[in-house]
Amino acid sequence: MYALVDGNNFYVSCERVFRPSLQGRPVVVLSNNDGCAIARSNEAKDLGIKMGAPWFQIKHLEDEAGLVALSANFTLYGDMSDRMMSLAAGMGPTQEVYSIDESFIGLDGVRGDLTERARKIRARINQWIGVPCGIGIAPTKTLAKLANHIAKTAERKPGSYPAELAQVCNLATLPANDLDAVLGATGVGEVWGVGPRIGAQLKAAGIDSVLDLMRLSPSTVRANWSVVLERTVRELQGQPCIGLDDAPSAKKEIACTRSFGHPVNELQPLVEAVSEFASRAAVKLRKQRSVASEVLVFVRTSPFRKGPQYNRSIVVPLVRPTANTSDLTRAAVMGLQRIYKPGFELAKAGVMLLDLIPDTQVQSELIFEEPGVGVLSDGRERLMSAMDLLNERFGRSKVHVASTGLDRTVKQWAMKQERRTPAYTTRWDEVAVVRA
């Protein structure tokens, strides 16, 4: 058995914890540079705001419907996610954190009423950190995710499903006839792994509901669609095909890219931006204990702005695979200098670390510019570890390479976050103050 714990409208819920006045109001959280809606409260959804809706197209709702728009505060959301996941882990012996707001819990060996246990965990999460969530329980991960959708829909839209399925939905306890009725009322597009293209193909074949898909023969699905969809059908039929991943698999590529808050047309601010992106990517690289063999850097103008367009990238091979921030930053800046061309209003840049391998696979030839010093004994690993520990304790980029620029300078390439709320849980100077 599996449970899926999923925070409701997670980014908006995190904001409402510290601003109760937002309860009951339409709220959206905007993407980097306040570009488009990436999270919506139920009230915002009722206004017809779609996921990814550009801000300039919905801005009029501020005056017309009282819409509140906030800049993304990922520091806050990440910390609140850690707190929620630690509480969700109390539901079962194993856990897979699937995303910032979703967590699969393995329930093997858990005794008693699983539905009641889920309700207590949900109440604890809501009481301790103030984030409402939905919980779905089922024999497979695909069914658990579907049960979670049913639980959240039944709560938001009373009458769409039986009231007892709101907040917590345990498909394993439903009688066969009731289960068929629930699955028959759920569109096939709500199944985990059925995207818009496959969903359209299924509907064209007369498969409109989850129940229709579940009743197909796996061999027929494999012959007409794919092995992946066959696995999904088997999961819907109660046959576990997807296990829990206790630890996420190492990424094969690591990227850090950003759109600029303002167009950049000079080399120096680009060097600062690319250096910052390479530094952040290097931290991610070390966390998964990998080293990179190549660095890709790119710059481009905005296709939505008038004027000359420019889009260039370059791959810089490294002498030896490394996770050292200085080496990766140097390679990224070198690549940037090769592709930079003046006269363009650049809107975005990024760094990708390619050809990743475990850090246990090390080339052990000597460093020729430092005769007699081996790769494994030059102290740079300890330097990077110390740098990571200091930044983790005192804040990101407190210790950084010089090419990223001074902290006190206003960076031309920095993102627009005009509506960002404080980092209530991670910065002493931004902790919420309660006055009597």
Question: How does this model look, in words?
Answer:
Helices cover 37% and strands 19% of the residues. The chain is of the alpha+beta class and 436 residues long. The strands form three sheets. It has a five-stranded mixed beta sheet with strand order 5-6-1-7-8. Helix 5 runs antiparallel to helix 6, helix 11 runs antiparallel to helix 12 and helix 13 runs antiparallel to helix 14.
Structural class: alpha+beta
N to C succession of SSEs: EHEEHHHEHEEHEHEHHHHHEHEEHEEH
Please, what is the average pLDDT? 88
Uncertain residue segments: 371-377
Helix content: 25-40%
Total strands: the figure is 13
Contiguous helical run count:
15
Strand order of the largest sheet: 5-6-1-7-8
Outline type: globular
User: Cα distance, first to last residue?
Assistant: 47 Å
In terms of DSSP E residues, the strand content is 15-25%
Sheet having the most strands: 5 strands, mixed
Oligomeric category: single chain
Please tell me how large the radius of gyration is: 25 Å
Brief summary of the model shown:
37% of the residues lie in helices and 19% in strands. By secondary structure, it is α+β, with helices and mostly antiparallel strands. The longest helix is centred in the middle third of the chain and has 21 residues.
Defining traits:
alpha+beta, 5-stranded mixed beta sheet, 436 residues, 37% helix
Topology (elements, then pairings):
Elements lengths: L1 E6 L2 H9 L8 E4 L6 E4 L1 H5 L8 H4 L2 H5 L2 E4 L2 H15 L5 E6 L2 E5 L7 H16 L3 E6 L2 H16 L11 E3 L5 H9 L11 H9 L5 H5 L3 H7 L2 H10 L17 E11 L2 H21 L2 E12 L9 E12 L2 H15 L6 E9 L2 E2 L21 H15 L42
Parallel strand pairs: 2-4, 7-8
Antiparallel strand pairs: 1-6, 1-7, 2-3, 5-6, 9-12, 10-11, 10-12, 10-13
